[in-house]
Amino acid sequence: MESKPIVEIRNLVKSYRRGGQILPVLTDISLDVAEGEFLALMGPSGSGKTTLLNLIAGIDRADSGLINIGGIDIASLSETELARWRAANVGFIFQFYNLIPVLTAFENVELPLTLTGLSKKERRDHAEAALSVVNLSDRMEHYPGQLSGGQQQRVAIARAVVTDPTILVADEPTGDLDRTSAEEILELMERLVHELGKTIIMVTHDPRAAKKAHIIRHLDKGVLSANTQADF
Amino acid sequence: MQILKLIFKSAFRHKLRTFLTVLGVTIAILAFGLLRTVISAWYAGVEASSASRLVSRNAVSLVFPLPLSYKEKIRQVEGVKRVSYGTWFGGIYIDEKNFFANYAVEPKIYLEMYPELIIPRDQLAAFLRDRKAAVAGRKLAERFGWKIGDIITLKGTIFPGNWDFVLRGIYKGRDQTVDETAFFFHWDYLNEVLKKAGRSWAGQVGWYMIEINNPNIAADVSLRIDKMFKNSLAETLTETEKAFQLGFISMSEAIVIAIQLVSFVIIFIIMAVVANTMAMTARERIGEYAIFKTLGFGAFHISGLIFGESLVITMTGAFLGIGLTFPAAKIFSKGLTQFFPIFNVEHKTIVLDVIAALIVAVVAAIFPAWRATKIRIADGLRRIG
Question: N or C: which end of chain A has fewer CB within 10 A?
């Protein structure tokens, strides 16, 4: 991929304090992700994959280093600014879908749009379009509890893309799904990259999932390996 | 709008827990409302007092009389418009448990000084004509099924003997604040019998009711009256009708304070119950709040969700409680007429109910909201799965 980097990370350091001890999690990480790229982050448990993803998504703070997303140094943003930035620029896909159980599929997808200045009709149009992208137009009024795991994850993907964010971050998006559903989700993510030009950064343990990505990077003990071109 | 919908849906997510909390708030607000109504009933006499009426009684105690001869002297005091008088009779109707207030009064002026007691003209005329006549309040007449023309016999306690009266009139209150359970008869009738029996209260009255020209001169007129009878055998203590009524309440002040304290304790207990519900709810939903934060919702929105949910639960209970206070007060009123002639749920009580419920809702949500807004997203997300 030769597009200009939309994610630029330089010399990123992150550690956690447990009791009186400081545990280093990420050590001097540098990473570029180009626009429209599908990057998979792999590595054993505790290697810092989710921490790195959280830092890129602006839901955690680094100790030092630069994180520049779409030309914005997110480390310089206040909590309120960061929340606004996340709402506009990041779409999240979680392992356990994380839908709000008392809201219908449509309402879950519409939820991030309530933070925008869109009218009710515009919100409805956007949410319906997002649900149609994930082929769930006929399940709009269903509650999460009435949907299968794969369908719930598709709703979560619709919620992630509905605001047309700069990047999509996915943390083990197939980790809670059977093989068929996982395959459907991965195909959907591929479509988002190829057809809609989305940039996806995905954390996964699953080599089959990682194979769908353009680039695979391995993290081990907080250190990022060199680029690996996915075999696809 | 979607946020409001979310608040309502979230509030009723745990149906049993929400139902029990709402039930608790309903009972607490009902109890609070009834206790406040009891306090209002206690002060009903004070509230119904007129600023232009003074009461002059024996300075030693109300149980000691004043000579009838004071009437003319008081009437001549500057600022006094009219003077009447009365005596507490303390009669019992059939049984002691049938208590009601009964007074021997100088009938014409006394009733004129109480325009809030509305008596049909023909009944008033009949009452004034007949020395053995009496008038009773509407609620009192209803309580005992009295009709005009009935002979009512009271057993005297202060003035022994059986006293027969003919019911010539039934008065109604001008509004809900007027006591409709009193019984008035002619002071002349009482005095006549006492005179014949050679009793010490003959020619004596319990108090003077004084109407003044202007409420602003009440203090001056009171001073003048009391000064006039200084160093006499029966010195007077003159005060406004309100102060006179408050004097009665001060005798039972400890009970009123205890009721007030209990009413606040109820609110404090329900605050703890709602706070517990909200704390449990927020703890269970920490992961969900982390998702909201992830999606870009800020502390303001998260707090709004928690405060909103607390308000929905508490105000649902509060409105049910307020709704039930009216029929409950009616039932109480029927059973307690002899103790609380006026037992109405005042607007003030409803306002206090709503304020108490709002305070409960807000205070109960403060800690859970603070906790939810302070949690780090990464920590919150770890709670899911």
Answer: C
A202 within 8 A of A189, measured Cβ to Cβ: yes
Read off the pTM. 0.77
In a domain, A52, yes or no: yes
Residues of chain A with Cβ-Cβ distance to B3 below 8 Å are 114
Kindly list the distances between the CA atom of residue B6 and the CA atoms of A60, A103, B235, B361, in Å, as whole numbers in the listed order: 27, 7, 72, 18
Q: For residue A24, is it within any domain?
A: no
Where exactly are the structural domains of chain B?
Answer: 2-44+253-382, 60-234
ipTM reported for the complex, 2 dp? 0.88
Has residue A92 been placed in a domain? Answer: yes
**B296 → closest Cβ in A54, A115, A176:** A115
A179-229 pLDDT, tens digit per residue, is 899 999 999 999 999 988 999 999 998 888 899 899 999 998 888 887 665
| 3-class DSSP state of B28 | helix
List CB contacts (< 8 A) between B295 and chain A: 86-87, 92, 111-112, 115, 159
User: What tokens appear for B184 in the block?
Assistant: 């008035």
Instruction: Closest CB to B378: pick one of A59, A87, A103.
Output: A59
Question: Mean pLDDT throughout B369-376?
Answer: 91
CATH assignment of the domain containing A52 = 3.40.50.300
Question: Are A91 and A200 in contact, with CB atoms under 8 Å apart?
Answer: no
On the question of pLDDT at B177 being above 90, the answer is no
Q: Which residues of A touch B384 (CB under 8 A)?
A: 94, 96, 98
From CA A160, how far away is CA B81, in angstroms rounded? 84
Q: Is residue A154 part of a domain?
A: yes
Name the pLDDT band for A1 (thresholds 50, 70, 90). very low
Tell whether A110 lies on the interface with B, counting CB pairs under 8 A.
Answer: yes
**What's the structural domain count of chain A?**
1
CA distance A3 to chain B (A): 27
Range of A88's domain?
35-61+77-229
